[in-house]
Structures are given as C-alpha cells and as structure tokens.
Amino acid sequence: MSAPAPEHFQYEDDPDLPGWKRWQILDQGRFNSFIGSLSVKATTDRTALVRHRFERQHSNLRDHIHGGALAGFIDMALFAAARGLGVLAGPASTVDMSIQFIAGGAIGTETEAEVELLRETGRMLFLRGVVRQGEVTVASFLGTIRKSSPPQ
Of 44, 60, 81, 148, which sits most exposed with the smallest number of CB within 10 A? Predict the structure, then answer.
C-alpha cells in the first residue's frame, strides 16, 4: 500500500458523529470540494458506511439530488470507504463504475452509502453498494479502484 497523502486529504475523527471519521479534500479548488466532506465508519472488516447531506447546490430542477452530484458522491464514497476499511491510503483511480438510479434523492436529508469490499488484489479493489435515505433506496452501484503503483 502506498503512503498516505496528507497534503491532499484530511481523515480524522468527525466532531459531529462520535465513532465516525471525517474525510475531506484540503484543496478547495478541486471537484471533491463541490460535494463536500464525507463521514465514514467501518461497520465490519468488509463494509463501511459513508454519509453526506446534499444541499440546494447539488439539486436538479425537480429538487432532487442531481444525478451528477450523486455519481460524484458515489465515486468519492468508494475511496472514503476503502480508506475507512484500511485498504487504501494513497492516490488511486476509478477504473469502472456503474450506477442504477432507483429513486429521487431528497435535498437536505441524510444520505448514506453502504459500501462492501468484494475483493482486493495487489492493485485492484472491487466494491459494491447502495445509497439510502432512511428506508428509501436511491441508487445501487459497482466500482473498481486501481491502487497506485509502488515506487520504483
């Protein structure tokens, strides 16, 4: 595993959610800052929860979470969950991601992705999950992350 990149992300106890970690990008000029910080909690050695509350700037004209914002959240949730599970510490890349949008997500409501690590190889992470708001399933997803190459 590559060394953490503290100059890019902050990962520390979440002051608003005891037992959770807050994962956020430090460079506010990057895309991740549009989504905002995420709260992460490993629930098993293979499953993590990632929380966020979407606001008006993340909405579409139906006042639901915009599909692009939800896709960005899911992409970031893959990385935040992998960090929370201890299988990713440094830079990595999304290789593949598929999303099934199931219901419109409400703005201003706690949104939670449950992410499961299906398999880890030397360079790849295979994950799947669902996004929920309470009892409502908003989306399901699959994703593959490629870890960075070790330094030569």
Answer: 44
Measured CA to CA in angstroms, residue 38 lies from 60, 73, 123 at distances of: 21, 9, 24
Question: Is there a contact between 118 and 128 (Cβ–Cβ < 8 Å)?
Answer: yes
pTM: 0.86
Q: What is the pLDDT of residues 91-122, one digit of tens each?
A: 899 999 999 999 999 999 999 999 999 999 99
What stretches of 1-152 show up as alpha helix (H) in DSSP? Answer: 32-35, 67-84
Between residues 146 and 25, which one has the greater pLDDT? Answer: 146
> Alpha carbon 88 to chain centroid distance?
12
SS3 at position 59: strand
How far is Cα 22 from Cα 152, in angstroms, rounded to an integer? 32
From the centroid of its chain, how far is CA 80? 5
d(CA 50, CA 44): 13
Report yes or no: 78 and 143 within 8 Å, Cβ to Cβ: yes
E-assigned strand segments in 3-91: 9-13, 21-25, 38-42, 47-53
**Are residues 71 and 99 in contact, defined by beta-carbon separation less than 8 angstroms?**
yes
